[in-house]
Amino acid sequence: MTTRVVCLVGFGEVGQALAADLRASGAGAVSAWDIKFSDAESAPSRGLRDAGVRAGYGLADALNGASVVISAVTAAECIEVAREVAPALAPDAFYLDLNSVSPHSKAEAAEAVIARGGRYVEAAVMAPIAPLGIASPILLGGPHAAAFHPHARQLGFAGAKVFSNALGRASAAKMCRSVMIKGVEALLTESLLAARHYQVEDAVLDSLHDLLPASDWRSLSRYMIARSLQHGARRAEEMREVARTVADAGVAPWMSRACVERQSWAGAHGHAISDASLDEMLDAVLARSPEPPGAS
User: Fold this and answer.
1) How many structural domains comprise the chain?
2) Is 187 found in the same domain as 162?
3) Per-residue pLDDT at 176
């Protein structure tokens, strides 16, 4: 079984990590497309310089000959990208949708791909893409998941497994997980910013060991808050999809909606990310941190 061309649509953090691993797997040629390639200094363009993948002149050019298309864009772009890609898909090409969106959004993306003869595969990445990269745990779903699984293993998706033949269940698992993971990020950000203001952060962190044992709450908090500062805008998009998922289950998404606000706010404070300590990072945020609109 040989995969000739894999096309990555979206060349952000996930796309770049997958590109490196796909090249290492030797499974075939890799092409890529990102709307930000038009800006030579954008993060996707900079990522291309050492990636060893072919950048398409446009979306259709990048898709040319691809038997596997991997969509790794933002949550807000998921459906529109599927609609743009679908007309240019090769017959029977697999479309692997890695985007963190609700089951409803996955269904809309799938409809666009299937209508043009593509084989849509739902994918839910159940851990940060680093450090495992392409080998991260991924749940595959939908009627074409089983057929894609051998290709996935060949490409290096060592952590991929068929979760359900029913479209939407894998994404539901991912979205419900995000209530916790992105929620904890938001809670730590809010808790420790306030604690730092009052100079009680050590007491707060020490108390967490008794309730939720972890090897190093200070390091974990710094990591999770930094991720929120770095990717807050993208996480806010995902949490809007999470809120939709929760609401579709008949549960009021109060916590998820609040997380949207905190993640979006955090994303505007990327200036604080550095090699500094947790306390220094919190101080940098507090120094340039106006109260969010509507706060009381």
Assistant:
1) 2
2) no
3) 98
Q: Cα-atom radius of gyration of the chain, to the nearest Å?
A: 20
Q: Name the one residue in this structure whose structure tokens are 């298309």.
A: 69
Using CA atoms, how far apart are residues 27 and 14, in angstroms rounded to an integer?
18
Host domain of residue 127: 5-167
Q: Is the bond preceding residue 128 a cis peptide, omega within 30 degrees?
A: no
DSSP-derived secondary structure for 101-124: --HHHHHHHHHHHHHTT-EEEEEE
Beta-carbon contacts of residue 105 (< 8 Å; ≥ 6 apart): 75, 78, 79, 99, 171, 241, 244
CATH of the domain at 219: 1.10.1040.10
Average pLDDT, stretch 140-156? 96
For the stretch 158-206, pLDDT in tens is 999 999 999 999 999 999 999 999 999 999 999 999 999 999 999 999 9
In a domain, 65, yes or no: yes
Q: Which is it for strands 119-125 and 138-141: parallel, antiparallel or unpaired? A: antiparallel
Reduced to 3 states (helix: H, G, I; strand: E, B; else coil), residue 95 is strand
Record the pTM: 0.92
DSSP 73: -
> Which tens digits make up the pLDDT trace of 69-86?
999 999 999 999 999 999
Q: How many angstroms separate the first and last alpha carbons of the chain?
A: 60
Same domain, 161 and 27: yes
